[in-house]
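Today's session is about reading a structure prediction critically. Students often jump straight to the picture, but the first step is always the sequence itself: look for stretches that repeat, for charged clusters, for runs of hydrophobic residues. Only then move on to the predicted structure, which in these notes is written as discrete structure tokens rather than atom positions. Here is the chain we will use throughout the hour.
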Amino acid sequence: KQWYQRRVAITAGMDEIEDQRDRFISIKNNCAMKRLDRFRKNDIGRCKEAKRKFHSQTEKSCASLEKSLSAKKNTKGIEELDSTCKKEKSTDCDSALIPLL
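Below is the predicted structure for this chain, in token form.
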């Protein structure tokens, strides 16, 4: 009889440990899922927006370069296009670094 009571006590203790372990795992999983969800919504969204902005600026600079290549021999027009291209190039370089920061 005494042996049976000890076994029941040990089993009850093990069941309590299992329950505590399950609760702990559940809490940790919920916390991890919240962090992943927050990362997905905030950080990935911000990077996608920066990527869209970068591609938009790249398209503008490519169009400007194409315009300068097809420009007539007019030196005034070429100088104006050259200064525009230089400005866009510096803007592109700066915007290319934004996703890395």
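Discussion point for the tutorial: The chain is about 90% helix and 0% strand.
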